[in-house]
Amino acid sequence: MPVSLRAGLRLCCLVLLATVVACGGEPATKKSDDRTEGWSVDKLYQEARKATLDGGYVEAIDLYEKLEARYPYGAYAQQALIDVAYSYYKNGDAELSIEAADRFMRLYPLHPNVEYAYYLKGLVHFRREVSILEKWLPQNIAARDVSNARRAFDDFGQLLRSFPDSRYAPDARQRMVYLRNQMAEQDILVARYYMTRGAYLAVANRARHVVETYPRSQFTPEALELMVTAYRILGLNSQAGDALRVLNLNYPSHPATERAGKLAVLQ
Question: Of 42, 99, 32, 34, which is closest to residue 71 (Cα–Cα)?
């Protein structure tokens, strides 16, 4: 190939290459679809807070998590973590709510909102307990799982032990009364079942558990009555007498005391 022709082809290639580079060699920058890009930490928090107040918990969760990722330190990040725990709770994401609350307590044990983290965990388990209770109402309630009730009871109890003057304490106490009665009722129902099966030692043990674990529940008198009955049948008259004395001393006018007293007379 003549030199002049080869040089001409080389020049054409260079011109084409320059044109490609000039027109499209650099990839076009794609516009971001993230509307929060460039938002300040204050802007992110305020928008997340607004979404929470408006009931837009999915949006709030997204904004709180972006805030934590972009601005992981400082007061906003701390508040965002407890707020996202609340948003998870309201959105029905129980495990994620508990996880966020636990992380908050682990990272910021001296933060003023630690008491709320305990309270929130109690609320999560309490909601689960109430949901399960509603599910079992038409069925055999004695067979239901009360583990969520116990967890809620423990969370509220931890709140009251650590922060007895907390603004959440009055509500926590009321919920604990409800939970105490629910758990006591569960044991009473099981004890009644054992009674129908003639498992009298199991009756006495389950009833004693109610008395010892939930001494202020509304089912304590019946638990003592079951103890009197079971111990009498088993021939354990000393234990039956002790249970009857506790009944007479603490619940002199309760129907369970009258029934247990009649049983003692018959014996």
Answer: 42
